[in-house]
Amino acid sequence: MQLMTLQRDRRLRWPRVEAALLVAPLLLGLSLLLLWPLAILALRSIGVGGEGLSFATYRAVLAEPRYWQVLGNTALLALASTIGALLLCTPAALYLEQPGASGRRVLAVLLTIPLSLPGIVIGFFVILFFGRTGVATDLAEAALGRRVPPLAYTFWGMLLGYIYFQIPRVVLVLRGAAAAIDPDTLDAARTLGASPWRVYTAVVFPALRPALLGAASLSMATAFGAFGTAATLSRSYRVLPLEIAAAFTERFAPELAATLSVLLALLTAALLWSVGALGAERRFADEENR
Amino acid sequence: MQPPRPSTRDPVLAIGRACAISAALICFLPIPLLLAVATSDTWQQGPWTDGVTLRWLGASWATVAPFAAYSLRLALTTLLLNVLIGLPAAYALARSRFPGRPVVRALIGLPLAVPGIALALALILAYPTWRGGGWLLVAGHVLYTLPFFVGALVPALAAPDLREREAAAATLGADPLRRLVFVTLPGIRTALLAAAIIVVTLSLGEFNVSFFLFAPTAKTLPVDLYAAYITGRLEIAAAATVWFILLVIPAAAVIEYLGGARIGQA
Amino acid sequence: MRIAQPATLHLERIRFAYGATPIVKDVSLIVEPGELVVIVGPSGCGKSTLLRLVAGLLQPQDGTLWIDKHDVRQLPPERRRVGWVPQSYALFEHLSVAENIAFGPRMAGVSSAERRTWVAELLTLCRISELAERSVRSLSGGQRQRVAIARALASRPRVLLLDEPLAALDPQLRHELRARLVELVRASGVTTLFVTHDQTEALAVADRIVVLDGGNVAQVGTPRQLWETPQSAFVARFLSAAEVITARRVGAEEVEIMPGLRGRISSARATADTIALALRPADLLWGAAGVPAEVVHAEYLGGRYQLRVAVAGGPELPCVAYTAVVRGAQGTIGVHPEARLTVVGS
Q1: In chain B, helix, strand, coil percent, each to 5?
Q2: How far apart are CA A149 and CA A153, in angstroms?
Q3: Residue C254 DSSP code
Q4: Between chains, do A192 and C104 touch, taking CB under 8 Å as contact?
Q5: By the CB < 8 Å criterion, does A86 face chain C?
Q6: Which of B16, B201, B255 sits opposite A91 (nearest CB)?
Q7: What is the pLDDT of residue B265?
Q8: Does the residue C2 lie in any domain?
Q9: What is the spatial distance between Cα B166 and Cα A101, in angstroms, rounded to a whole number?
């Protein structure tokens, strides 16, 4: 009896030890490279290691109207680009998931182009089209007969850039969700009296709702943290990541940069967490909390 | 056999088709434009007014090549580190219910929730002396790619039929090491390849973190591109971008072929 | 409880092809009000497609379709008032059971108060009242099936279409659920088309059976008619695992399968000298006087053995034994004294 207990203990213990060994390098690496630096970031933002423990920078930032303006700019850009991307990509994703013509495969591949491009390259594309010597700018000038201010460096140029990089992500998420819809449910809805339009409002969109919200909050969080596109395009329309960069590389104010970073990180984390809250599937009376 | 669906007499699908085509065009059109700019003598006078020229491409290659080389080396180093710390962890996550498993999962996903610029800043503040020499750059790249690497491998390692094959191999007399070499690793071959290519592509295209962590001897191609955008002539910048895209596209194409992934940054 | 005025369903020369492949070649059928007609046939013969054609989810290339004397070919599915239950049941996962059932009335604009009463009645009829607020995901196969049927009935359909409603269920439960299903359909009184590939199910459940063979109607009739008077070898084999052989007529009501093996048939049916017979296991008895045979294959079916035996100079024949036999046993088989052999052909 005792021998058997011993053996059983050994068998139970080994997987734990083995797992710990396998995970140890990762835990060590992440602690050193992620947790510790983030802690330092948070500590610097409240003055530790600099001038002494205080929330002075937080107070200064939150009291400064300019930072609220910048925050508003960032939020508006994130929201507008997310909505734009969703409006364009939701019907597109539904179309792409229909079985059918081979043209759809080509379209799907084209839609993944922005995925591997960094924000700066996307910003450059916007410049090529809407910059001072951009194609669209030239065409507009030719058509209107006068000089046209370039769109690239305004809110609208940045909006186009942000939408560009969000397209493949949104399409990917939505296509996955659209593919999961059982086509028989759509047919069943028709036989139950739903017109083609009502099939969408009563069956398709409710089924897509978790994915739509998930894609939306992921897009918004990415847009908030986007730096490259803004760095290439922004002139007067400032966004938060640019302020962080300026605080560090131009003003040599690491506490300020740290504070802004912490605020930005909290904001993006909150946006991502809202995926779990809003985007969760509906829970019914009988289902346990998952 | 699936019975056929009625054709698109559906209003939403007609809209969908228009949206899909527009979106695809939006995504694609910059590429030919880019090529046109990169091969025109003086873009301001219009495309190819003096004919197609390769001089911008040639000139920018001279500048771009060392950075491309560094970016590749960095990408491969990042991949190696990912394999060394990520593969064992993925195995543990997929196979064992050790205590603290959800914590480890959350920890691995954490870099995705933090904006790149904040990550870079945090690293600089924590290890100011390491900034030169590029080690922080490697750290930043590993942090940013690890979640995708592990995320691509865990499902493959947890797959029930793989575990069944390992069990079958065990009943046929294979010890754990042989099972690992002859069953597990070949079994996750596709996922491993996809994960590797994702890491390489992400690393090649990474800018947000690299911009703050680079050093004179450790400068990546995207950082150099940025300099070209801000200070350089349009045609040269376009040519440099062409080289960048040529570097990145093969990897991206393979990913798409293998089924796509959520990658890239703003 | 009557759900709706039962309707007549009339298909006339329906033809449907998917691209260049014909699936339904020429199907004509009349279903009387309140009737339960089973469409049966091997996989790929067009049964499910036929249901989709009636529902309006597919358009036939040729032929007409009437429901209660109205030509419905131009009507889209949402206006045909036809209830359709696909094999996967296709329940809406984002809605509760009650909401699923209320879907049809909701589309029709029924007020929410009326919907509630109507749904409650259907829940009772289908014996799933306790499931009303449950999520669809947590239901068992049998429960899903009943919800799907309740949902279809809620729209007061004129015709109910069931595509293999029992195929997705546990074999042990299938028998009991089959009885409950038929009870429910009868109680609702709605005209029903029921598709299955299981011949036992078809024979057990139907008022009439339509046997489909590669897109064509092989035979239509009551279960007894199809069993006792199959019009083709295909129908005979499909419905009863029969061995179709030719026999020689030796009298007004007697045929000879081979020397030593004779049996009785119903004389009304046969006039020719050579007759095709559908021999079923129960027609031949192991141990009876007749011809020598050797057991090739034996299956114990509980209380009896179903055999395949080899006879000299003839094909393998099905046979029944009430004593224990094993493969390789030698003995004799003869036509069962009570058997009336089934003649194939019209």
Answers
A1: 75, 0, 20
A2: 9
A3: E
A4: yes
A5: no
A6: B16
A7: 46
A8: no
A9: 41
Per-residue pLDDT band for A112 (boundaries 50, 70, 90) equals confident
Residues C247 and C322 placed together within one structural domain of the fold = yes
- The per-residue pLDDT of chain C, averaged, comes to 89
- The torsion angles phi and psi of C330, rounded to 5 degrees, stand at -105, 140
pLDDT at site C222: 95
CATH 1.10.3720.10, applies to A55-278: yes
CATH number of the structural domain spanning residue C129: 3.40.50.300
User: Chain A to chain C, count of Cβ pairs less than 8 Å apart?
Assistant: 89
A253 CB near a chain B CB, below 8 Å? Answer: no
Query: Is residue C172 domain-shared with residue C267, that is, in the same domain?
Result: no
Structure tokens, A277:
């809250």
Same domain, C21 and C84: yes
Query: Which domain, by its residues, includes C279?
Result: 241-343
The total domain count for chain C is 2
Residues of chain B with C-beta less than 8 angstroms from the C-beta of A224:
115
pLDDT of res. A134? 87
Considering CB atoms only, which of B11, B18, B88 is closest to A22?
B88
Would the pLDDT of C16 be above 60? yes
CATH of domain B63-258: 1.10.3720.10
Chains touching C by CB (3 or more pairs below 8 Å): A, B
Q: How many CA atoms lie within 13 A of C5 on its CB side?
A: 5
CB contact under 8 A, B19 and A22: no
| pLDDT bracket for residue C113 (50, 70, 90) | very high
Residues 6+ apart with CB under 8 A from A144: none
Q: Could you tell me if A208 lies within 8 Å of chain C, comparing CB atoms?
A: no
* Statement to judge: residues C75 and C221 lie in one domain: yes
State residue C139 phi and psi, 5-degree precision.
-85, 155
- Tell me: the pLDDT tens digits for C285-341? 998 888 899 999 999 988 999 999 999 877 889 999 999 888 988 999 999 888 888
Question: How many Å apart are CA B43 and CA A68, to the nearest integer?
Answer: 40
ipTM value: 0.85
Both tokens of residue C60?
Answer: 């036939």
Q: How far is the first Cα of chain B from the last one, in angstroms, to the nearest whole number? A: 43
Segment 41-70 of chain B within 8 Å of chain A by CB: 43-44
Residue A280: per-residue pLDDT: 65
Rounded to a whole number of angstroms, the distance from the CA of A285 to the nearest CA of chain B is 27
Per-residue pLDDT tens for A189-244? 999 999 988 999 999 999 998 888 888 888 888 899 999 999 999 999 999 999 99
pLDDT at B2: 47
Low pLDDT (below 50) residues in chain B:
1-4, 6-8, 260-266
First CA to last CA distance, chain A: 39
Nearest neighbour of B104 by CB, restricted to A27, A222, A265: A27
Q: Which of C235, C266, C299 is the last residue of a domain?
A: C235
The domain that holds C330 is classified in CATH as 2.40.50
**2-61 of B, contacting C, C-beta below 8 A:** 3-4, 6
B chain contacts of residue C48, beta-carbon cutoff 8 Å: 3
Q: Which residues neighbour C172 within 8 Å (Cβ) at sequence distance 6 or greater?
A: none
